[in-house]
Amino acid sequence: MVVNSFRRHVPLWLSLFAGVAAWEIAGRSTSAAFMVPFSETLVRLWQLITRGEFIAQLIDSAELFVTGFVLALIVGAPLGMLLARVRVLRIGIEPYIMTLYATPMVALIPFILSIMGFGFAPKVLVVFLFTVFPVLYNTVEGARSIKPELIEVAKSFRSSEWALWREVMLPYTLPYTMTGVRQAIGRALVGMIAAEFFLSSTGLGQLIMGASQDFDTAGVFASILVIGLIGVGLTRLGLNIEQYFARWRQ
Amino acid sequence: MADQTLTAPVSAGRQQAAASRWSGSFVPRLLTGIAILLTWEIVVRAFAPAYVAKPSTVLLAIPRVIVDPAFLQALGATLWAVTEGLAITIVVGTAIGVLMGRSDTVDRMIRVYINGFNALPMIIVLPLFSLWFGYSPATRIATIIFAAIFAITMNVADGARSVPREYLEVARAFRSPRMSVLTGIVLPASMPYLLAGFRLAAGRALIGAVVAEFFISAGGVGYYILYNSRSYHHDEAFVGVLLLAGFGVGFELLVSWATQRFMPWYRRDEKSN
Questions:
Q1: How far is A33 from chain B (nearest CA, A)?
Q2: For B155-181, what is each residue's pLDDT tens digit?
Q3: CA atoms B60, B66, B68, B71: torsion sign
Q4: Band of the pLDDT at A144, cuts 50, 70, 90?
Q5: How far is CA A118 from the centre of its chain?
């Protein structure tokens, strides 16, 4: 079994090794302004970490990400359930939500910048706008697919509206909301970096911008490597959360 | 004739049902739309500075903007870049996806990279791309491709993997050449997946184009929005946003139309109102 799983992963390790080797060779054979080898990137990354600025920027970004994400959850999930419960509201608002979901939110950044300026709040708003629609949309989808019988039974047992939400709506929609959360994680990361690029420069976005302005190519690669790893980690986390809650779904 | 008499009442009835459902949802939609616009108008008039876009002034700006040659040029540039980028993306992305789906070795070798790049927030490559391709439209195309390709590749790989085994076995039994298995079975079977991937990719390509234009100040709708909102012409800039939203919705409609038109057997679970 162990041998088997090891053998299954051989191609993965080989391909990772080949990728790193290709990166190293490409970096060594081109100008340092365009590309730096893997080894140099790691050295630079270690410098950034030990100098402490990296950790500070990471915390900065995390604060922005979490604030925007939590706000989007707090707004998106209950609103989604409300829309599913009140039919007129849903029919009325749904096309507008779909339109906003399909709108590239980055296009709103210049407006946010010129109206709200350079604070923490406008950046949170950007992350929020990137995040809220997948959560909202999936929650509505989930709440809409609740079997009418469930609600009818609850009603015929004279369940209160509050109990209906707590015992039927919430458990039923949670897996769908978590699908929204999984989709939202990727978008929230894009929103976070976009906010850090185009609004006031802070966090990981500032790290990479600063490096590119200083023509510190190794710094750029080091930042991209780290953000990539964070992206992969968060995506994994999102998938796990979704699968954990999917057990509730029949 | 017999056919017609049989089908006519059915389709008429269906049309009627569709019409009544449509008018049933039309009124609340219209009212909500009006309510949203009114709230926006009132809030901006009451609390925001005069330059902030509000529905009435945006509406007035529309005829002005859509005949503005600068805007049309920007629109053309962005649309062309997105089309070009998506065309390259579809060809290359499908090729890689089919390879991944049909060959376990290729899949194990590159899946880790495809997943990794897909999880990367695409806009962080902008500083790097602007370094590589300069402050030129090439950076925009590269960003569009990078933003869009992984969605297509991953979906096509899923599609190519899920080709029904029986089809392939029949093809092998009849000794079909590999090429015709590919074009006759694998590609058609992956089409719905390709379209689903395209739906994602088109949205990301649009975001990629706008972000690249912000970043490198290349002429296009994104830069038009940035420039106008910086110079406090929010109404004009907002027309650009409306247009982008229109593209976003347009891509969605295009994909669902194409799915229904060319792949009637493939139904995304129909939503009933």
A1: 8
A2: 999 999 888 888 888 888 998 888 888
A3: positive
A4: confident
A5: 22
At B1 the pLDDT is 36
**B113 is a domain residue:** yes
Whether A145 and A202 map to the same domain: the answer is yes
A106 shares a domain with A90: yes
Nearest CB partner across the interface for A95, out of B29, B115, B225: B29
One domain for residues A1 and A71: no
Q: Cβ of A33 and B110 within 8 Å? A: no
Answer yes or no: do A56 and A26 share one domain.
no
* Residues A97 and A17 grouped into a single domain: no
Residues A16 and A107 in one domain: no
- Give the list of residues 6+ apart from residue B64 with CB closer than 8 angstroms, or none: B236
Residue A170 belongs to domain spanning: 37-246
Q: Give the minimum alpha-carbon distance from A150 to chain B in angstroms, rounded to a whole number.
A: 18
Using the beta-carbon criterion (under 8 Å), do A208 and B122 form an inter-chain contact? no
* Banded model confidence at residue B6, pLDDT cuts 50, 70, 90: very low
**Contact present, B137 and B218 (Cβ < 8 Å):** yes
Q: Which one, of A12, A62, A177, A14, lies nearest residue B116 by Cα?
A: A12
| Dihedral (CA of B138, B141, B143, B149) sign | negative
CATH of the domain at B77: 1.10.3720.10
Could you tell me if A176 and A238 lie in one domain?
yes
- Answer yes or no: do A211 and B127 touch at CB < 8 A: yes
Closest CA to B143 of B193, B212, B92, B91: B212
Closest residue of chain A to B27, computed from CA coordinates: A92
Distance CA B27, CA A6 (A): 62
Q: Per-residue pLDDT for B45 more than 50?
A: yes
Number of compact structural domains in chain A:
2
Q: What is the CA radius of gyration of chain A?
A: 23
pLDDT category, B98, cuts 50, 70, 90?
Answer: very high
Q: Which of B48, B124, B222 sits opposite A208 (nearest CB)?
A: B124
A156 by Cβ neighbours in 10 Å (0-12 / 13-18 / 19+) ranks as exposed
Q: Are residues A169 and A207 in the same domain?
A: yes
> Within a domain: residue B272?
no
pLDDT digits (tens, 9 = 90+) for A196-228: 998 888 888 888 888 888 888 888 899 888 898
On whether residue B242 sits in a domain, the answer given is yes
